[in-house]
Amino acid sequence: MSASPSPDDQLAGAAQDASGAESFCAPAISAAPLNITVAYAPAPREVVEEALQLPPGATLAQAVQASGLAQRFADLDLSPGHVGIWGRKAPLDQPLRDADRVEIWRALRVDPKLARRERFQAQGAGQAGLFKQRRPGAKSGY
Length: 142
Hints:
Blueprint: E1 14-16, E2 22-24, E3 34-43, E4 46-54, H1 60-67, H2 69-72, E5 83-85, E6 88-89, E7 101-104, H3 112-123
Parallel strand pairs: 3-7
Antiparallel strand pairs: 1-2, 3-4, 5-6, 5-7
């Protein structure tokens, strides 16, 4: 009959060193390449995406460099706050994970609040927003 394994033998990730003491090991990092997408929008409604395969441990800066977007677009701003991963700001030395989407954002040329205010004024107060679809004879406002 075979002996059942002891509870100590059943511990996942447990290994014994030369002295016989158990130590826990971190899972091994796979050597498979990372599939990364780098996206940049040089103009409104225009998006340039580059699909890359990078070695494990690659950083955000290495992904941008490998994409070639910095060479194609001279006005590319890689300062902090203009790059990120999946819509969140990230430093250039941030390590990447498989299936990450690196995004490069261009600076805003118009303040969004000011643009909305100007659109509202151009459309007219009675022609936009909550006031547009008012029943005949109804009071103004809400």
